[in-house]
Amino acid sequence: MNDADFPLFSTLLKERSGLVLTPDKVYLLESRLLPVARKWKRKSLAELAADLRGRPEPALVRDIIEAMTTNESFFFRDIKPFDQFKGFVLPELLRRRAATRSIRIWSAACSSGQEPYSLAMILSEQRAQLAGWRIEIVATDLSTDVLDKAKAGLYSQFEVQRGLPIQLLIKYFKQQGDRWQIDEAIRAMVQFRQFNLLDEMAPLGRFDVVFCRNVLIYFDQPTKTLVLDRIGRQMAPDAFLYLGGAETVLGITDRLAPLTDNRGVYVLTGAAAPVARAAVA
Ligand SMILES: C[S@@+](CC[C@H](N)C(=O)[O-])C[C@H]1O[C@@H](n2cnc3c(N)ncnc32)[C@H](O)[C@@H]1O
């Protein structure tokens, strides 16, 4: 790749999505953008770069950014957070929200839907206790391609074999040819929306639980701080935040702190701390 083109692509990516691409990732840029170049009938990445230097079509910019996102996901990823949600956070919220009977959950970089659908299946398994409750699962991602797949709720054999317990597969999916279609009732529990984590979050409203897993790893430190501080503002004072196994708030923001004895779960600090800490007392 031309020396001047790499910074052009990496700056666009950083500005529009927060994703950081270091020069040692030229191969990644090339392998992911060549199909975009082909789709747009450009002969090379140099021609794509020339488009960007002019007045690129928004759809081209979107395709470039989407091609650079990493969308790896699977059902009940890392299992522990989901067990913790089921065993601690959900009972805790059932107790604390008894007056309003309302719980809002945000899957903030939901990719192809396995994360919010895992939560929806957990909630569905508890439906006797949740009768009369208003449960909202909002699932967002930057990429409209993955959101389309998530909304369709159609997964390959390989995808349903990764992390999904067989009894949940049998209960909540129907085989369609070589694919598996998620049950309409589970699908209907999740509202999918396109949302960029760099954007103002206030329109999304307040949440009791936020899953923002395996996306901050792609951002630089100032972007992580910005995004975590903004997520903190969307959390109810006693809400819970889940990050990915390789992610932390430590050294990034002091608005959030780990929930003792619960790896990967965070609560608000400061004014909200007594309420949040009551959870562990
Ligand atoms: C590796 S997947 C993580 C999926 C899921 N949370 C999990 O842990 O399995 C990361 C997702 O973050 C999304 N993403 C990247 N930058 C984003 C941004 N600025 N705003 C919203 N989503 C973003 C990507 O499109 C991708 O689907």
Topology, number of strands? 10
The molecules bound to the chains, other than polymers, are: S-adenosylmethionine
Number of helices: 13
Outline the biggest β-sheet: 7 strands, mixed
Question: Topology, pairings included?
Answer:
Blueprint: H1 5-17, H2 26-39, H3 45-53, H4 58-68, H5 80-96, E1 102-107, H6 114-125, H7 127-130, E2 134-141, H8 144-152, E3 154-156, H9 157-161, H10 166-172, E4 173-176, E5 179-182, H11 184-187, E6 190-194, E7 207-212, H12 221-234, E8 235-243, E9 256-258, E10 265-268, H13 273-277
Parallel strand pairs: 1-2, 1-7, 2-6, 7-8
Antiparallel strand pairs: 3-5, 4-5, 8-10, 9-10
Helix pairs in contact: 2-4
Bound molecules: S-adenosylmethionine.
What does this structure look like?
With 281 residues, the chain is an alpha/beta fold. It contains 13 helices and 10 strands. Strands 6-2-1-7-8-10-9 form a 7-stranded mixed β-sheet, with helices on both faces. The protein has a 3-stranded antiparallel β-sheet with strand order 3-5-4. Strand 4 and strand 5 form a beta hairpin. Helix 2 (26-39) packs across helix 4. The longest helix has 17 residues, at 80-96. The mean pLDDT is 94. The structure holds S-adenosylmethionine. The site of S-adenosylmethionine (SAM) has 23 residues, from loops.
Give short descriptive properties of this protein.
281 residues; alpha/beta; 3-stranded antiparallel beta sheet; 10 strands; binds S-adenosylmethionine
